[in-house]
Write a structure and sequence with these properties.
By secondary structure, the chain is an all-alpha fold. It has eleven helices and two strands; from the N terminus they run αααββαααααααα.
Length: about 290
């Protein structure tokens, strides 16, 4: 018997344990499963996709009456669009996962997964993949509505779209891993929404989503600067607003380096917290 034949015989010997796929492949398969599950939840689809569009319509209509503009001639719809893109990412990543994971844990879905060979890393990758797909669809719809109904000019250069891409991808990843990390805080699925929603609302109010950021009190701007949403919104403003609008920022510039640094820092914090605190079981289940 040749060495090749012997090797094949050992690999196919009855009773031998099959080799499991790698973590990346498992993560991709899990992402497909998560995406299919999300699009079956019609109420979640309507809320997550419609919320940024509705809020943009409200603020653009209320503040933009009679052609009113932000300083430097920027229409209100154009100014608020970046904040709505950022808050849409926050809702579909951080809020969605921080609420849905405790519910899955309460219903026993995570306990069943914990009894399988699925690595936690593959589960995390699946969640990030689902958030990425949902966020792409959500933002695409928002941009179409902004351009067609509110005449918001889209970025005209490849460099601006490149900035949009890295802020978007980094924001999605950061929001997703922070959502996974925060999901261990609610004591049950029933309390998750009550714990997470106020956090999201406060961040929206202080991060330049519902108001022009430069009009907020200085102390509020400083608090907002600690958290990712402010930097996502600022990064998106650098894409959709004219270059001279950078003077409206407290620093007088777009601060791309600081945006990347803060988002990466929160990405690392979210990963560390998620890995150290994630649980397959409920607290009262051992």
């Amino acid at each position: 018997m040749t060495a090749t034949t012997a090797s094949t015989t050992r690999a196919t010997r009855p009773g031998s344990a099959p080799r499991l796929p790698g973590t990346l492949r498992l993560g991709l398969e899990r992402a497909r499963y998560e995406v299919r599950g999300f699009f079956r939840e019609r109420d979640a689809i309507v809320f997550i996709f419609a919320y940024p569009i509705i809020m943009l319509a409200i603020f653009a209509t209320v503040f933009g009456q009679d052609g009113a503009e932000v300083a430097d001639g920027v229409p209100f719809a154009q100014y608020f669009l970046p904040g709505m893109v950022a808050t849409g990412v926050l809702l579909s990543s951080f809020q969605s996962l921080a609420i849905s994971i405790p519910v899955e844990r309460d219903e026993g879905g995570l306990k069943r997964l914990g009894g399988t060979p699925l690595p936690a890393a593959a589960y995390f990758l699946g969640k990030v993949g689902q958030v990425l797909v949902v966020s792409v669809v959500q933002v695409a719809l928002l941009l179409v509505v902004a351009a067609t109904l509110f005449d918001v000019a889209m970025p005209g250069t490849a460099a601006l779209w490149g900035t949009f891409a890295w802020v978007f991808v980094l924001g999605v990843a950061t929001g997703a891993v922070c959502g996974v990390g925060f999901s261990s805080l609610p004591r049950s699925g029933r309390s998750a929404s009550a714990v997470v929603t106020p956090v999201v609302l406060v961040l929206q109010f202080i991060s330049g989503v519902f108001f022009t950021f430069y009009d907020l009190p200085t102390w509020m701007q400083q608090v907002a600067s600690v958290f990712p949403l402010k930097w996502m919104a600022q990064g998106m403003r650098s894409v959709f607003l004219p270059e001279e609008a950078a003077a409206l920022e407290p620093s007088g510039s777009w601060q791309h380096g600081a945006t990347a640094a803060v988002l990466l820092a929160w990405l690392v914090v979210g990963l560390v917290v998620g890995v150290r605190t994630f649980r397959w079981r409920r607290r009262d289940d051992g």
